[in-house]
């Protein structure tokens, strides 16, 4: 089947996750100190973090900006 192309709007990030290895390197508190509050997944040294973007941002443009800010925060925390 073929579909006619249609504009569906901008893509919007749903969220961002980091796994246990990165959380262990950064530290749980420091990883959660960014612009988006993370939800802890797992326990006992195997914690991962889920950063929900959709529920935090008011608009698609704000969601993209939030993800960029969160990535900058996590990158800086990784280097520290």
Describe the structure.
It is a single chain. The protein has 80 residues and is α+β, with helices and mostly antiparallel strands. The chain is built from 3 helices and 3 strands, in the order E-H-H-E-E-H. The protein has helices spanning 20-26, 28-32, 60-79; strands spanning 15-18, 39-41, 48-52. It has a 3-stranded antiparallel beta sheet. The termini are far apart. The mean pLDDT is 88.
Number of helices, where a helix is a run of at least 4 consecutive DSSP H or I residues: 3
H and E string: EHHEEH
Q: Give the structural class.
A: alpha+beta
The order of strands across the largest sheet is 1-3-2
Through-space gap between termini = 52 Å
Shape: elongated
Low-confidence stretches: none
Provide a compact summary of the structure.
The chain has three helices and three strands; from the N terminus they run E-H-H-E-E-H. The chain has 80 residues and is an alpha+beta fold.
């Amino acid at each position: 089947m073929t579909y006619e192309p249609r504009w569906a709007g901008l893509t919007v990030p749903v969220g961002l996750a980091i796994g246990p290895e990165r959380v262990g390197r950064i530290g749980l508190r420091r990883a959660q100190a960014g612009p988006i509050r993370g939800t802890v997944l797992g326990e006992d040294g195997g914690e991962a973090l889920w950063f929900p973007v959709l529920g935090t941002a008011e608009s698609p443009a704000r969601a993209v900006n939030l993800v960029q800010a969160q990535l900058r925060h996590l990158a800086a925390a990784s280097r520290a």
